[in-house]
Amino acid sequence: MESAGAVSGVKKLSMIDSAWGFDPAAEKYALSPYRSNYLLLGRYTNDINKAPYAPLFGAAGKAGDGLNSTEAEFQISFKGRFWASDDRRWGAWAAYTQQSQWQVYNGDLSRPFRETNYMPEAFVSYGPDADLGGGFRWKLLNAGFNHQSNGRTDVLSRSWNRFVANFGFERGDFNLVVKTWARIPEGESRDDNPDITSYLGYGEVWAGTVWRDYHLAVMFRNNLRFDENRSALQAEVSFPLIEHLNGYVQYFAGYGESLIDYNHFANRIGVGVMVKDW
Question: What is the reported pTM?
Answer without folding.
Answer: 0.92
